[in-house]
Amino acid sequence: MRKRLYFIIILLFTLYLNTVECKGQLKRTTEPWNEISAFFSPPEAYVGSYGKYRSPHIFSNGDSVKTKEDWKKRRRDILDFWHQQMGEWPELLKGQKLEIIDTLRRENFFQYRVRFRWTPNENTEGYLLIPDGEKPKPAVITVYYEPETAIGEGVVLRDFAYQLAKRGFITLSLGTKAATEAKRYSIYYPDVDHAEVQPLSMLAYASANAWQVLAKVDGVDPSRIGIMGHSFGGKWAMFASCLYEKFACAVWSDPGIVFDESRGDINYWEPWYLGYHPPPWRKRGLITDENPALGLYPKLIERGVDLTDLHALMAPRPFLVSGGSEDPPERWVALNHTIAINQVLGYQNRVAMTNRPTHAPTEASNEQAYLFLEHFLKL
Length: 379
Fold this sequence. Notes:
Blueprint: H1 2-29, H2 32-36, H3 68-86, E1 99-106, E2 109-119, E3 122-131, E4 137-144, H4 160-166, E5 170-175, H5 177-181, H6 199-215, E6 220-230, H7 232-243, E7 249-253, H8 296-302, H9 308-312, E8 319-323, H10 332-345, E9 351-355, H11 363-378
Parallel strand pairs: 4-5, 4-6, 6-7, 7-8, 8-9
Antiparallel strand pairs: 1-2, 2-3, 3-5
Helix pairs in contact: 6-7
């Protein structure tokens, strides 16, 4: 009797483990779209609401975009405007070589410390993570204050390159380490005293050169390269993906997707973003009468410019706003403008937003971002 009871207990326990394993496998093999589809529709309160933002639909003569051909012309106008305002990029670099400094085997991927030139007068170092398995693979560039955080050597839950590599993505982790240590944060061309391009635009330019380098890495599918960043990196990823159309998709984690002078973390007026002026720089912080914004930023505000035109440059490429404290649900009012452009182009489900209460990423928000990238780059 005891032997029979023991056998029954073992059998039941084995069945339980198999059930758990099957459930786990079911969860792992569920299509990413089933988990993220709800994030492509604004809450009912924001459906069809466009707020105070100037519409990307409208040409300077008052005509509106009605066809795909109209959008090609309007898109060129928007892109030209931003480059004219921020400063024209130098030519993209050609014939670059990716130098491997050292190699480390980690879990299911190789990690390479690499060096390449990302501006005409500046090299950068970062980390290239190449997972095992069949190739070609999708790839993602991650951007932040320094490249170590994204490979798991920094603040928790910002290890985007590491987590994506474990999921089968080739990743390139980049950052402005030296500039951050000097509290200059960004890229200044030709130098910090005589910048000819707004630093946030130069970050985008550097990312375009990084795309060129990554696209030539053995095993990378150039048609499936995305970009992802948080906060400072979110602004960087946003401008890079909008200004350089070869990025297939993008994740912007709580950058502050519109101008908002009431929020200290949506500080586009700072000299390392869109408020460059020769040093000595304004005191860091909110704009006041005693500490006004300088450089390009106040000129954009005076003209009634916001970032909705910039967002629209993504159409029809998909992007996800991983919103936190700086990008709450009401940001859908700004995103609706890009949704409207996609509708003209015949696309749906290209603009998504998730929301969390904190600025910092969470396990849930990161999982949503990774599933977004899996859906649009893997499938």
